[in-house]
Amino acid sequence: MAKINVRDYYPFYEHDEFVEVSDELAAEMAQWERTERSQKRKKYRYRANYSLDWGNGIGQYVVFRSAAPDEYYEKIITHEQLRTALATLSPKQRQRIYAHYVLGLSQAQIARCAGVRVSAVSKSIYSGLVRMEKCLKKFF
To answer: Would you say residue 127 has pLDDT above 80?
Structure first.
């Protein structure tokens, strides 16, 4: 059993208070302390202090960025149009386009998972995009 000073972990204690804890808990608390010191050191070393008042504009983006009603409506319409265009595709094309553009998989990875050649995946994605383009041109 290890003894720890509770005042080291809880700053609102005004006097020293020693408590016995298991060795595993004492080791874990020491590891937390080392990790916290390491993170503080990295923040200082790499100047990684982020604040909403910082001059890089992040605060203004978070605080003042609200979508106007027309932007919100346009976003909804665009999503509906994309869903409609995706619905015109075959399931394979839809899955391959989703895997490539949304999940970020390469065409080689998709081909390996599907057990087909890369050229087949490439042609499938290309023809799917052409079909989506035709469908989306109807809306504009």
So the answer is: yes
pTM of the full predicted structure?
Answer: 0.51
Domain range enclosing 55 = 1-65
Q: Which residues pair with 17 in a beta bridge?
A: none
> Do 28 and 58 fall within a single domain?
yes
Return mean pLDDT, the chain: 85
Residue 111: CATH number of its domain? 1.10.10.10
